[in-house]
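Hi team,

As requested, here is the filled-out complex form for the guanosine-5'-diphosphate run. I kept the field names the same as last time so the parser does not choke. Let me know if anything looks off before we queue the next batch.

— J.
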Amino acid sequence: MDGLRSASDTIAAIATGAGEAGVGILRLSGSASQKIATILTKRDLTPRKAHYCVIHDLDDSVLDRGLVLSFPGPDSFTGEDVIEFHCHGSPVLLDTLLRCCAQLGARYAVAGEFSQRAFMNGKIDLAQAEAIADLISSSSEASMRAASRSLTGVFSQQIGELFEALVSLRAFIEAAIDFPEEEIDFLANSDVLERIQTLLAAVETLLASAKKGRALHRGLKLVIAGAPNAGKSSLMNQLVEKQSSIVTERAGTTRDLIRERLAIRGLPIEIVDTAGLRESDDPIEREGVKRAREEIRSADRVLLVCDDSIGGSRENAEELAEIFRGETSSDIPVTVLRNKCDLSGRTPGKQLSLSEVTEINISALSGEGVDDLRDHLLAAAGLENLGNSEFSARARHLDALERCLLSLRSAENQLSRYSAAELAAEELRLAQEQLGEISGRFTSDQLLGEIFSQFCIGK
Ligand code: GDP
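And here is what came back:
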């Protein structure tokens, strides 16, 4: 199996995070799990019951007292026999226990191997397995909830329904092909075209939801720019919501970038302050400018803060955006913020959407207009109406859904224009494969290996 490990051996890993903690969990999966647990606890374990046990090492010394649970396969997370040791959260203790398990025949698990086994044994599909990793790495409450919905199968179920509809449609068309003398009438008199169009509409809707889910997990990367004293720091402070944690990195040279992480109504946001973006002869400053340009190239939008209380920012928003894009050799979307509207007298929150640039009047000092900026940022990311139905999705899911749409459109075309049933059936087969890539039915071992290697060890 290219990229995948053999699933016949027993794996072991510390499932809880590194460092000291109240409780630490070590997990085993595979046919030797129960035997190892019996040796270390010196007792038989009743399935799915928490046992308060003495846990021994291989010299029969007491290592710890803790809870031990046995989940015999196939009714376990991985589908195999699983054992969990809930010990005191000492890294040294857990390492010692892990070594004991290894000496009794278990192998150290690689990243994502438990989830990979759950997938291989049909306990979860690939989109659900990915949702586990997305849940663990989620950086805001909304993205965490979306990943949790994907994990429970919200996304997979919709993919499964579309897959089944495609299977039955293909079977119908292929049956018509098998009886060529009746083919034309059979297809002309049936509702095949409507069924393809219904599928097209359903995939389009699912793609739109998946795009939201992708944006929600990935969040937005914003660059904040503007002259000194324009109000950039004041705006950063306004944007930070009480519940979000802020991490400020200020390492390295004085010309380094400042990065803040926050959430706007649940959407994870990274803001990079690129103050000091100007040409210079100083090599350190030049390095800072180079880094700022790189950040701008990978950002979703720039917030261009102008001090509207002084005469210097009277250019129109499009001119300001053009100047910024020229200076940074980028074509990044721009939002111009007319700051200090409490001094300039402009109406706070008022938005002006020009062809490519949006201008908003704000006061970073009082906070007026900042809510309108939040609305605008969510709308620009397609996330204005966040509810309780979002699920997380990844770039590869969007890619597969887009290819699926192309195949369905082509199938519709082959049938409606050329009555080419065989070509239409082939396009439907491709569409089916593309959906199967999402759930993992048609996914190469190499891609599976890549996906699971990005998980953490013990998951
Ligand atoms: P930065 O250099 O761009 O980060 O600008 P700061 O956020 O440090 O702001 C520079 C000065 O302008 C500070 O004295 C702020 O209090 C003031 N300031 C920022 N925003 C506003 C605003 O909307 N109205 C008023 N009146 N003063 C502001």
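Two things worth flagging: The two ends are 21 Å apart (CA to CA). The longest helix spans residues 192-218.

Thanks,
J.
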